[in-house]
Amino acid sequence: MDTKNTLLGPVETGERIKSLDIMRGFVLCGILLMNINGFGLANAYSDPTIAGGYEGYNLYTWVVTSMFFEGTMRGLFSLLFGVGMFILLDRLDKRDAGIQGADIYFRRLTWLLLFGVLHAYLLIWSGEILFNYALMGFLVYSFRRFTPKKLIITALVLFSIGSCWNFMEYKGKVGLLAKVEEAKRLSAEGKTLDFETKEAKKEWEKVLEYRSPESIQYYNESMRKGYFDVVAFNAPIVMEWKTYGPYRYDCWDILPMMLLGIALFKLNILLGAKSFRFYLTMVIVGYSIGLTVNYFETMNIINQNFSYISFFETNPTYDVGRVTVSLGHIGMIMIFSKLHILNWLKYAISCVGKMALTNYLTHSLICMIVFTGAGFGLFGKLERYELLYVVFSIWVFQLIISPVWMKYFHYGPAEWLWRRLSYLQIPPFKKSENVENTLP
Length: 440
What we know:
Helix content: over 70%
Number of domains: 1
Structural class: mainly alpha
Number of helices: 17
Distance between the termini: 15 Å
Order of helices and strands: HHHHHHHHHHHHHHHHH
């Protein structure tokens, strides 16, 4: 075996960073709290008035998830992905991998891109994120040697561009509604509409159709059909998000969180190496700012009775709330990791984190069986709060099965396959295997 190639192999189980695995496990569980709305409801990820209910327990569920989890779990998932790719590149650089290291990195991302495509289409999840991570990962390579200060500044610039775009979109929607009102007035007066007003009217009709009971019913029935029918129905939705999403959202959402993650890792914040006082300060400051922003955003939407414009009105401050709450989450997770309590739970969560890719894909597989016509066909039949029963069941399942799996295997099955394809080597799978050369 080529000794240099062996040294460029995947990381051993023993070399993993425990605090990152615990954090990855927490985030993987948390992201399902948001994704479940897309798995089980039509067009109601953000707006509970479209489907799933918005009163009683449904309202409480929406408020809590909007305050604590919306954008933060996706943000932390992005942050951890950036850290993982940096650790890979840093390890390869320290082994003088040169161009071979770049080959491994970009091959790894290319396979992730393919995994994302298969995940979105075949496991019927239009909200899948692997494809988007691969695209942004290609850009991360150029930032790997930035200092923490430069990384943070770059991330803030990207966040600012996204916020400006959100503000301009909000102003555009205000203009749209004004044109719609003008169209109503002119029509009532029997006057002819100009081209711009006609276009505004058409756009608004599409919005109303998207939110209409008939549209939701059609969506529900389509998702309850057989597997291949659901794949065909889901395909155009996937295509729209995977072509529109990267330049509209990912460059200002996923990429800056990746860069922020690398900065925090270089500052040793994600290693659990700072003091309890430091992490407690992160919690207090992060939650104080973030939850305050999220509270006013949430109450603004509720006070406007979930109006169409209220969601766009809150978007300009969206990143301020979600990023600072994410920092609070990091502080809380690091404190939990450092405390000598609930070690059995920490171990179970860390095992979920070690198998993050496998468990993420398993979310989609289970939800496909539960919600689509390929399984039990419950799409659109559960209220928003009832979806939490599915979430909690998946959590329990993965918290039990992941430690059992990791007792006998070095990697989850998806992680092993990804490494096999990335490094063009066969990493050890079973822990009982006697491997001649242990791959770092």
